[in-house]
Design a protein that fits this description.
It is a single chain. With about 90 residues, the chain is mostly helical. The chain has one domain. About 75% of the residues lie in helices and about 0% in strands. The chain contains four helices and no strands. The model has no long low-confidence stretch (mean pLDDT about 85).
């Protein structure tokens, strides 16, 4: 497991996990999806989330692979947008 502590990822992961608890009560929110996304976000933060994602990867390998590829594309886009926003402030 590669441990990468990040306060933003922890907050986002626990927010998704709390949405899953609300989704268990309300029929409008799909609780399991929020729980799985919370595990995905927290997988590099906590060992229990990493084990949960390993179980999900064994059960649904195509889906977790697609999710990780989507995360990679999203990070590339976010970094490009950040660089474009900061470009006017850089010297040189």
């Amino acid at each position: 497991m590669e441990y990468r502590p990040s306060l933003r990822r922890k907050l986002a992961g626990f927010a998704l996990m709390s949405f899953s608890m609300v989704g268990a009560i309300l029929p409008i929110l799909p609780g399991f999806i929020f729980f799985a996304l919370g595990l995905f976000v927290l997988r590099h933060q906590y060992m229990w989330a990493h084990r949960g994602m390993a179980w999900a990867n064994g059960r649904w390998p195509e889906t977790t692979g697609k999710l990780e590829a989507m995360e990679g594309r999203m990070l590339v886009r976010m970094n490009a947008a950040r660089d474009a926003m900061l470009r006017p402030f850089r010297r040189g």
